[in-house]
Amino acid sequence: MNEQVIVIGASGHGKVVADIILSCGDTLLGFLDDNETLPDEIDGIPVLGKISNYGKYSNAAFVIAIGNSAIREKIARQLDGVRWYTAIHPTAVVSQLNTQIGEGSVAMANAVVNPSAHIGKHCIINTSAVVEHDNRIGDFAHVSVGAKLGGTVSIGDHTWVGIGAIASNNVSVCDHCMIGAGTVIIHDIKESGTYVGIPARKIK
């Protein structure tokens, strides 16, 4: 069934999500964005106005293409009751065995989501990221480009796993963490904060 979709957020990330929609054969109506300096269209895609205009498009599904998880949550609450689009690129490999991807989430090109992985709402599984079997990814989390999560890993709500970061099997990361690019997690992280290095250590 062809969906009519609007992307909230007209940044570079928004263009990547727009490309996923088009690659899936769905109809991209355009962007909504509160930045008043944007042109009327971006790469041929119409900018339809501010986010508050969403009510004009009652037949459309929506996806939030904004990296900041707090802003994603704020918009998701603001647009309560709309139909959310889950954007999965055709080259993403998503297991059919007990895998769940929450509404409004995005799995980008060449991402891998293996059996019994459960991904929350409005998450980003970025380009070539690997979410192994039995993972639990919380709402509004972001697994960045090329990050790799081993089996039975838990990532909390609003946690950002940076580019190329690695989580060993059976580790848990709590809510509201920032995991730096290239960081290697080998033990549970139980305190919110920013972590970098090999192995991961908290910084101020």
**SS element count, helices:** 2
- What strand order characterises the main sheet? 7-10-13-16-19-22-24-25
Helix-strand pattern, N to C?
EHEEEEHEEEEEEEEEEEEEEEEEEEE
Give the distance, in angstroms, between the N- and C-terminal Cα atoms.
Answer: 49 Å
Q: What does the main sheet amount to?
A: 8 strands, mixed
Describe the SSE topology:
Elements (H helix, E strand, L loop, with lengths): L3 E5 L3 H12 L3 E6 L8 E2 L2 E2 L14 E4 L4 H10 L4 E2 L2 E2 L4 E2 L5 E2 L4 E2 L4 E2 L4 E2 L4 E2 L4 E2 L4 E2 L4 E2 L4 E2 L4 E2 L4 E2 L4 E2 L4 E2 L3 E3 L4 E2 L7 E4 L4 E3 L1
Parallel strand pairs: 1-2, 1-5, 5-6, 7-10, 8-11, 9-12, 10-13, 11-14, 12-15, 13-16, 14-17, 15-18, 16-19, 17-20, 18-21, 19-22, 20-23, 22-24
Antiparallel strand pairs: 3-4, 24-25
What does this entry look like structurally?
It is a single chain. With 204 residues, the chain is mostly beta strands. The chain is built from two helices and 25 strands. The termini are far apart.
Quick overview:
By secondary structure, the protein is mostly beta strands. 11% of the residues lie in helices and 31% in strands.
Comma- or semicolon-separated keywords:
204 residues, mainly beta, 8-stranded mixed sheet, 11% helix
